[in-house]
Every structure is written in structure tokens, then in C-alpha cells.
Amino acid sequence: MSSYRIPEAAQVLGVSDDTVRRWIEAGRLETADEGGRTMVPGRALADLAVSLADDPESVPRAGSVSARNRLPGIVTRVVKDTVMAQVELICGPYRLVSLMSSEAAEELGLEPGVRAIASVKSTNVVVERP
């Protein structure tokens, strides 16, 4: 399972490091100690990203993102059959869905809690691992 340092979690959620620390102190986001470092489990980060996407007005946002940019985020859901996969990501305030082959999703290791980047151009969403 993936885990994230606080600055990485903040980047994925599109908030400041201090906001993530406040959420941890308030018990809104769980952490784990890994070798003396405070880490955020990927699944916990994905769950928080989904809840924030459901109520985007509750999250302070630093700015807007052009649709032509690469959007860093976190995978929140993967649905696969024998041929295709539907991959859902939360990238800051945005929820994106990409359709790709199941083979591509497996090769990228896409599962809830994994960090990913969505590249959006017109109607295409391309997912890559950082």
C-alpha cells in the first residue's frame, strides 16, 4: 500500500501542508509512523479526497488549474473487467475518470490510494505514475 509524506498529501489534495496537519490533529486524517516519519496511508488519503470532492466548498483552494495541465492526484477507485478498466482520480477539487485497458491499469499498478497524474487534453484523460 502506498503512503505519503505530509507535503505530498497536501499536494494531492490541493491544500497547504498546514491544512493537512490541522486535519491530522483533528482526527480527520489518520497517520502511521514509518521509520520515525509521519506518513499518511494511501487508502486514508483516498477516502478523505472522496469526502472533500463531495463537498468542494469546504476545502480552501490555492488557485485554479488549466485543463491543459497535468493534474497530480490520487486514485480513488478502479473497476476492471477482462478488457477495460475505469480509473477514478481526485486531483485537487476535480474528480476525473479515465478509461484504459485493464493491462495498462495493471502495468501502472493503479489501485485506490496510489498517487497518479492525469493529463487532460480535450476529451482525453491520460493517467501516468510519477
Kindly name the structural category.
alpha+beta
Radius of gyration: 14 Å
Kindly report the average pLDDT value.
85
Q: Please trace the helix and strand order, writing H or E for each element.
A: EHHEEHEEEHEE
Quaternary structure: single chain
Main pleated sheet:
5 strands, antiparallel
**Order of neighbouring strands in the sheet with most strands:** 6-5-4-7-8
- N-C termini distance: 16 Å
Beta-strand portion reads: 35-45%
Helix percentage range: 25-40%
Residue ranges: pLDDT <50 for 5 or more in a row?
62-67
Number of strands: 8
Spatial shape: globular
Number of helices: 4
Summed up:
Pfam families: HTH_17, TOBE. InterPro entries: HTH_17, Mo/tungstate-bd_C_term_dom, Mop_domain, SinI_DNA-bd, Transp-assoc_OB_typ1. It contains four helices and eight strands; from the N terminus they run E-H-H-E-E-H-E-E-E-H-E-E.
Furnish the topology, listing elements before pairings.
Layout: E1 3-5, H1 6-13, H2 17-25, E2 32-34, E3 37-41, H3 42-54, E4 70-80, E5 84-91, E6 94-101, H4 102-108, E7 115-121, E8 124-128
Antiparallel strand pairs: 1-3, 2-3, 4-5, 4-7, 5-6, 7-8
Kindly describe this structure.
This is Helix-turn-helix transcriptional regulator. Residues 64-129 form the Mop domain. InterPro entries: HTH_17 (IPR041657), Mo/tungstate-bd_C_term_dom (IPR008995), Mop_domain (IPR004606), SinI_DNA-bd (IPR010093), Transp-assoc_OB_typ1 (IPR005116). Keywords: Molybdenum. Pfam families: HTH_17, TOBE. It is a single chain. This protein has 130 residues and is α+β, with helices and mostly antiparallel strands. It has 4 helices and 8 strands; from the N terminus they run βααββαβββαββ. It has helices at 6-13, 17-25, 42-54, 102-108; strands spanning 3-5, 32-34, 37-41, 70-80, 84-91, 94-101, 115-121, 124-128. It has a 5-stranded antiparallel sheet. A 3-stranded antiparallel sheet has the order 1-3-2. A hairpin with a 3-residue loop joins β4 and β5. α1 packs across α2. The protein is globular. The two termini are 16 Å apart. Mean pLDDT is 85; it is low at 62-67.
